[in-house]
Amino acid sequence: MTNTLTCRHCNTPLTQSLVDLGLSPLANSYVPLENKDLPCATYPLHARVCSNCYLVQVEDAVPKDKIFSDEYAYFSSFSDSWLAHCKTYVNEMTDRLALTKDDLVIEIASNDGYLLQYFVEQNIPVLGIEPAANVAAVAQKNGVETRVDFFTNALASSLVDEGIQPSLICSANVLAHVPNINDFVQGIATLLTGDAVYTVEFPHLLKLIENVQFDTIYHEHYTYLSLTSVEKIFESSGLRVFDVQPQTTHGGSLRVFACQQTASYNQSPAVASVREQEHRAGLTSELGYQGFEQKVRAVRAGLLEFLNQAKTDGKTVAAYGAAAKGNTLLNYCDVNTDLISYCVDRNPAKQNTLLPGSHIPVFNVDQLRKERPDYVLILPWNLKTEIAAQLTDLADQGSKFVTPVPAIEIFS
Predict the structure, then answer these.
(1) What is the pLDDT of residue 64?
(2) Of 300, 313, 372, 381, the residue nearest 341 (C-alpha)
(3) pLDDT at 1
(4) Based on the number of CB atoms within 10 Å of its own CB, is 181 exposed (0-12), middle (13-18) or buried (19 or more)?
(5) Best exposed site among 94, 119, 121, 238 by fewest CB in 10 Å?
(6) Is the dihedral of CA 93, 96, 102, 108 positive or negative?
């Protein structure tokens, strides 16, 4: 007899499946070349839906210290479009909140300082909180004050005891990475005072379902968020949502603005608008989550049909972007070097490694120009425009680009 899993927010038994992706290795655990003959450890990857708060989540199949170690391979600064997005955010928030040198901005999971650097340029004090020591060291080297730690309510209480009082707390694509989401949000509530603001960005569950973005499901993404679920979680810690801005990043995201219940902000009409979108899509009932797994299987079938046909035709296929989403996709589709020769990535930390599970080798981007493959499969499909623009010389020489989600698209 097995114990029924319960919701990580409200403890309701999880009886509805969104999609079961089987056993999968950790998406960001790149394999050293010397371990090429060793299989990767795999763990269950099954997304379920809470019938009470509609929080979509995967189980705690892996201890968090195996995922977020001292050495983490993801560096935010390797995406030019993401940096531009962050710089725009900094300018907008500086103006909206009238931030000055007398304010403090805290970013949770600040990575390599990719965002806070733009506040530093405007002489606005910052503090980054980042659990991965290697990326935090890069931020510190670049003048972004950073503490190496996980953000918890206990840490927030310690910061309050130190007299730290931010005007703005921000986090991007982090809330989904938190195993104890209630404790994390309570920490935000502990740090916020007066009219201080918390902004959080996350890939929108509505877009994940509409566009079959199942490859964004992996072990370190514990939750998959809608405004519906986020409002419930925030309310339980005494926070309220007063604005929301849809974003184009990561295949469609939301930027949510939250504050203490007693803060002076009026609620924007955008909040009701997004609530209504989610309601119409069925995200406030079990109906909106049904049939997703069948759509996922169709994506797998389409990718395998393309790759097998390319092999039959004697065409070469390389992948661009050693992204976590790509690793979910490749492992669910059981793709390896038999169908994709190699992968390239701009991040030196990922080069000269093997992708987890598939063991596809990762090289510098210049490998594409040396070998000129017939097809370049863009695994981080959310960056396809940026990546294709970087590789126009390959397109001029006949290479074609391919994206796999929500269906095979070939373009040049």
Answers:
(1) 62
(2) 372
(3) 36
(4) buried
(5) 121
(6) negative
